[in-house]
Amino acid sequence: AFPSLAQAQASVANEVYQELGQPPVFLFCPTEYCSSLCSPGPGQSLYLLTLGQELLPGIGVIWTGPKVVSRELSPVLLEEVEGVLRRCPVIWDNLYANDYDCRRVFLGPYTGRAPGLMSRLRGLLLNPNCELQANFVPVHTLGSWFRSELGSCAHADAAGTEPAADQGDSQDPQEGSYSPQDALERALRDWVAEISRQASEPGG
């Protein structure tokens, strides 16, 4: 009934989206959801080009970055994807995911995500460790990064220009700069406090 997989997927997604009354959040995960799955690349992918043309504008498209688990994300890396999809992507961030290797747990700070990334995104989803308690540091440091991004956006709106990224240490993540090491130290302090609080509760 359809000349291509992309047209079939777009048709079904559009129909469901409209049947649900075009909700404000409706996400579509493409078959090619990272650069390494596109041949030769996102900008030359007929599949992604078709999705960009056929999907209704209100539908968000999920993207994981250069790879399924991407060490780095930057506005420059997302420009090509934004152009071909005709919308800012929703990042499905697998930085901490360990469902593919449950022998490892990732406890470091949220890192490798460049300043100014938020302005190129429609949203960001963090795929966590499978072990619930192991996600305290990832979620806490993601919050610090997010607050720093909000600070950057606020400064940019006020000045009309994108602020320069401060690579130095920052004690206040709301000032528009993000230090993974500072964020990690804050997260560890709060995690220890939370563990102590739970241990002091009756039956803890």
UniProtKB/TrEMBL annotation:
Family matches, as SUPFAM superfamilies: (Trans)glycosidases
PANTHER family linked: O-GLCNACASE, PROTEIN O-GLCNACASE-LIKE
Region (Disordered): 158-183
Domain GH84, chain residue ranges per copy: 1-150
Gene3D superfamilies for this protein: Glycosidases
Protein name: OGA GlcNAcase
Gene Ontology MF annotations: beta-N-acetylglucosaminidase activity
Coiled-coil residue spans: none
Biased composition (Polar residues): 168-180
Pfam families named among the record's database cross-references: NAGidase
GO biological process: glycoprotein metabolic process
